[in-house]
Design goal:
5-stranded mixed sheet, 9-stranded mixed sheet, mainly beta
Amino acid sequence: YDATGNGSGYYDSAMNPGMGPAADLSALRFEVIAPDCPLDLTTEGYSMMLDGAGATTTFGGSYYVNSAEDTVTPTVKVRFDAEDGTWTTLAPRKYTLKYEKETGEGSWEDYTGDTFGVDESGTATYRVSATGKESLYYTGTIGPVEFNVIKKHKVTFDTCGGSNIDPQFVIPGEKAAEPEAPTKDNSFFDGWYADEDLTEPFNFDTDINEDITIYAKWKDAITLTVGVYDKTNSKSGQGGTYTFNNEDMTHTIAKHMVPLGSEVTLVAAPADGYRFEGWTLGRVTGSDDEMRIQPIDGDPVNTEASMKFEAGPVYAGYAICAVFRETSDTPPEINISSLQVQVPDVRQSDRIVTAGDSINISVKITDNGSVKKALAWFLHDHKAVSEEDESHLAVKKVSLSRQDNDIWTGVLKIDSDTETGEWNLGYVEADDDNNNHAAFYNSASYYEEDFSPYADLSEYDFSVEKSYTITFDSNGGTEIPSQIVIAGRKAAKPADPSREGWYFEQWYSDENLTNTY
């Protein structure tokens, strides 16, 4: 500096490049700029947030703790939102926070510390305000912002000797989530209960407003092993699937734990190319990951695909086996010729013929070794259907005689209208033509306790109905073919006949043409 005041010299200055100072002072330069936020915290656009949760200057929200000993530490931020949509968070060094705790309705006291807990009531309310630091040229106070600390309610799961279930901490007024069922050796979980005596089932739709304990109920259990077996190829786990207690999931072999004495429903479903033969007891070999099932030789305990039974100790140590065979094991070709369906609206499974018809029957059986009974059609007495009533007398029986090449043939002649009714294909004793007992799959008309039919022949049943012939006399007009109509049904109106020089008026039911038809 020129002491006379006439001038001064600066390093890196274009004004006096010839005057060099004794030292380089350029590093001591600084720049004065306008602040990012207004210096007055009461300026419109300032707000206070707790933990960035969108709190406003009037309320900061709630914090939850799991126990009375737990505390929370909110993060307080002061933010300025500019008119152009941008915002800036004010540095914490530019303001001082003040906390207060509510001591009564409308009463507050200063609170020191940065952790916040609950009172004996399980809740506490605090508020915080921010005042600008004048040493940094900030002034004004924003706030206060209130916030609550609330203790959650503890839901304890007493499994009563079962596997451990972690407790849940639930916000007051909200609901507990139902946990996965616990497990217990040789026991079946039977639900959660609200009382220790296990008399009141717990409803998980209940609002939780206090600490509670809920209790697990158990029943004695039995583990059932169920599997499928391909008898044609002697392979476990093949031939079909089953469902257990109407579940959506299908299985080939699995273990199922159920309450002892409960009702169990099994439904077998054959795979393509297989048929279901029956349910039987079996043995299990291999580990749980590689179980194999083998049926015990003997007659099936049930031949219905859907089986219900009581889960009892009798099944301990055994497996329940669904046995399937390839369809090539069954008589696949049963052909009925000259059998006409007279009326198109009958059930698809019905075959309707009329009195006076002859039905030529040809049946091919490819596996003679499995057919222990002779085949015949029966017109039976529908009134005798119970297992106890053995008077299942056939009104008429038409036997089939065996020809060459596994062909069985016969002729069914419908002699009179008295032979109307349901005809069923079934098995009879081959050496007793007078034996009127027969067994039919899916038929309640005949019952034979010790005989399980080899194939489901119900699709070959047919009906014989009484019929009438309607003749159309056109009185000199064009010929109209007659119609055969099943009793109780309607004739089809034919096309009008024609006659040269005449106009067709109407059909009449009497020769004198007085009663219109």
